[in-house]
Design a protein that fits this description.
Helix content: 10-25%
Distance between the termini: 19 Å
Family: Belongs to the DyP-type peroxidase family.
Oligomer: single chain
Protein name: Deferrochelatase
Cofactor: heme b
InterPro entries: Dimeric_a/b-barrel, Dyp_perox_C, Dyp_perox_N, Dyp_peroxidase, EfeB/EfeN, TAT_signal
Bound molecules: ligand L6N33NVT, fe (ii) ion
Structural class: alpha+beta
EC number: 1.11.1.-
């Protein structure tokens, strides 16, 4: 185990004797609300730690941490350990911090060591703890803190951290093996093709690794990425990063459907945690390889041209999507979750759900029965030089084979979808998301790949 806390104290720096003695400084702010990092294992009122299991890092397992809200047991911790990584079918939180990283080192052992440290850190921060026991202010005055500190007083916030491996982790741009992983590179981890209309920015595309941190609180999500990147100083560097808000999907039937920045309910017809057979058919890799129990994550930064869309009539908008703006019901009638009737005709014997509408073209019926788990977020990143909003959807989809589960649908949408006129794809990434991390001593994300 490679906890930063176990690293020896750094040698005394020249002149360090001149540093002020701050051992008597006052304690900084304590818990503010909820189950805070400090309250959980300290003296905070209201928090109850029930010893129902120990993680390999020696702390109570996630489900053990509970608080009481209106007399009912409540936990805002999502278990880090399991057959699948959290952040896939676990209920989509409201906030996202997504980062794609370049791996700088050529040393496989250094990479494995980092992944091991990341898993140890994730097991802690997903419980609302600092990265190490020493935390952000308990270590040596002469060494950088072992946690950056910005989430110290905040609760776990249902934080999930999902790690993925890009194709470029396996082979470089000359197809040369990196880290001896080439023979294990899955065939499904393709270079995504150019799709009609793509205007991708290389600075917002690709990456050797990805970190998807989702939480109720943006500061908790950013803290996760910030600390994993900090721990990887000199081994990885951030290639691009995207913040998201207002989840545009629901991954559980217990969640309501949120709206995208065009004002439509988004995520109605999605794979949901409650349909294990569909998840096995469309989401989880089931091939006995190191990816068994994992999935593939497609990320697309899709700018939505608000200025044009906002001038479209309500009827025009609904015909483009194929659903009503109010309830999200299909134009063929019923409620939000009523199945669309694509055969139904409207005025002039034309299909009531237009042939170029988004839901018709994206529906499994049009795509050989293919389904995907969508887990995207809205984004708003200021304006361009003309004052137009740079805002849209950071689309995330997870599928068990992007060659059949994503590429054909994206090609169809890019060519025929009436919605495409209002969209610009500006960033892209495809990552193999390995299975979950077991609660065994020393287990780490991607272990099946490196030790299989
Ligand atoms: C390649 C896949 C998809 C991309 C890219 C995509 C972009 C995109 N979608 C919306 C808004 C909506 N999408 C909706 C449904 C829907 N979209 C996809 C796939 C992609 N969308 C699928 C598979 C589905 C489900 C189709 C079905 O089975 O009925 C909807 C309707 C509500 C819902 O079911 O979620 C909306 C609204 C935007 C704005 C967008 C790009 C910015
Ligand atoms: Fe869509």
């Amino acid at each position: 185990m490679n906890h930063r806390a176990e690293h020896p104290e750094p040698p005394e720096q020249p002149g360090s004797g001149d540093q002020p003695d701050r051992s008597d400084r006052p304690e900084r702010s304590g818990a503010k609300q909820g189950v805070s990092r400090r309250a959980l294992f300290g003296t905070g009122a209201g928090a109850v730690a029930v010893g129902a299991g120990l993680g390999w890092f020696g702390r109570p397992a996630a489900a053990a941490i509970q608080d009481t809200v209106n007399g009912e047991a409540h936990s805002d911790v999502v278990d880090y350990f399991g057959d699948h990584q959290a952040g896939i079918v676990t209920p989509a939180q409201d906030r996202l911090c997504f980062a794609a990283l370049n791996v700088l080192t050529e040393d496989r052992a250094e990479l494995v060591d980092l992944l091991t440290q990341w898993s140890a850190a994730c097991a802690r921060i997903t419980q609302g703890l600092d990265v190490t026991d020493t935390g952000f202010d308990g270590g040596s005055q002469y060494a950088p803190p072992q946690d950056t500190g910005e989430a110290h007083d905040l609760s776990a916030g249902h934080l999930t951290v999902t790690i993925g491996f890009g194709r470029s982790l396996f082979v470089d741009e000359h197809d040369k093996d990196r880290f001896g992983l080439r023979e294990h590179m899955p065939e499904a981890l393709i270079e995504l093709p150019h799709f009609p209309g793509d205007t991708l920015d290389p600075a917002r595309s690709g990456g050797d690794l990805c970190i998807q941190a989702c939480a109720d609180d943006p500061q908790v999500a950013v803290h996760a990425v910030h600390n994993l990147v900090r721990m990887g100083f000199g081994i990885v560097s951030t290639r691009w990063m995207q913040l998201g808000f207002g989840r545009t999907s629901s991954t559980s039937k217990t969640q309501n459907t949120a709206r995208n920045l065009f004002g439509f309910k988004d995520g109605t017809a999605n794979l949901k945690a409650e349909d294990p057979q569909l998840l096995d058919d469309h989401l989880w890799v089931r091939d006995g390889s190191w990816m068994d129990g994992g999935t593939y994550l497609v990320a697309r930064r899709i700018r939505m041209i608000m200025e044009t869309w906002d001038r479209e009539s309500l009827m025009g908008q609904e015909n483009i999507i194929g659903r009503t703006k109010g309830t999200g019901a299909p134009l063929s009638g019923g409620e939000e979750f009523t199945a669309p009737d694509f055969a139904m005709e409207g005025a002039g014997n034309q299909p009531i759900i237009p042939t170029d509408s988004h839901v018709r073209l994206a529906h499994p019926q049009t795509n050989n029965g293919v389904q995907m788990l969508r887990r995207g977020y809205n984004y708003a990143d200021g304006t361009d030089r003309l004052g137009n909003m740079d805002a849209g959807l950071f689309f995330i989809a997870m599928v068990n084979d992007p060659r059949t589960g994503y590429v054909p649908i994206q090609n169809t949408l890019a060519r025929q979808d009436a919605l495409s006129e209002y969209l610009r794809h500006t960033g892209s990434g495809l990552f193999a998301v390995p299975p979950g991390v077991s609660n065994e001593p020393g287990a780490y994300v991607g272990q099946q790949l490196f030790e299989g």
